[in-house]
Design goal:
The protein is of the alpha/beta class and 184 residues long. The chain folds into two domains: 14-125, Response regulator (Rossmann fold); 141-179, Homeodomain-like (Arc Repressor Mutant, subunit A, Orthogonal Bundle). The chain has eight helices and seven strands. The protein has helices at 22-34, 45-54, 72-81, 96-104, 117-125, 141-155, 160-166, 171-179, and strands at residues 14-18, 38-42, 59-63, 65-66, 69-70, 86-91, 109-112. Helix 6 (141-155) crosses helix 7 (160-166). Keywords: Activator, DNA-binding, Phosphoprotein, Transcription, Transcription regulation, Two-component regulatory system.
């Protein structure tokens, strides 16, 4: 079952998942438990830092933007308490600047949401200095664009005019995009 270029989970199978999206956190925790990890979850930066301090895990998956702060704070505590832990940053706000910040703070890898459990496991277990294999089913360019528009729309409190201005897009064009179903 294991991919040939992936390492096995080490003797310490502890995995910390930090995300404020409760349904996603539950699904990911269940999927990672099925793959052999001993999972502990946190729904905030504060809870993630507390677990990282008390029981620093061998592995961690941390959302970059949480309601109470930045997930990089959890990564910094993990690096302080357990330097060799392997950390993957997840974010729905993929940008080069945040990827660089994540890696500088000590993350092993950086994945854009929605990442599935197999992509996350590949990133966690990729041999040191090697990139994990490409995802089996990456999002289409249309889907990535749609996700980005939806995120900006939510950040603008569902204000179409403000979203269109920030995306440098005509308001009617944005309304047509928002009225359609998400692409695959």
């Amino acid at each position: 079952m294991a991919d040939s270029n992936l390492q096995e989970i080490g003797p310490d199978k502890s995995l910390l998942l930090v995300d404020d999206d409760e349904p996603f956190l539950r699904r990911l925790a269940k999927a990672m438990e099925k793959r052999g990890f001993d999972v502990e979850t946190a729904g905030s930066v504060a809870a993630g830092k507390a677990i990282a301090t008390a029981r620093p895990p061998a592995y961690a998956v941390v959302d970059l933007r949480l309601e109470d702060g930045n997930g990089l704070e959890v990564v910094e505590v993990l690096r302080e308490k357990r330097e060799e832990s392997r950390v993957v940053i997840l974010t729905g706000y993929g940008a080069i600047a945040t990827a660089v910040a994540a890696v500088k703070s000590g993350a092993t890898d950086y994945l854009a949401k929605p990442a599935d459990a197999q992509d996350i496991m590949s990133a966690l277990l990729a041999p040191e200095g090697e990139l994990p294999p490409p995802p089996e089913n990456p999002m289409s360019a249309d889907r990535v664009r749609w996700e980005h528009i939806q995120r900006v729309y939510e950040q603008c409190d569902r204000n179409v005019s403000e979203t269109a201005r920030r995306l440098n897009m005509h308001r009617r064009t944005l309304q047509r995009i928002l009225a359609k179903r998400s692409p695959r």
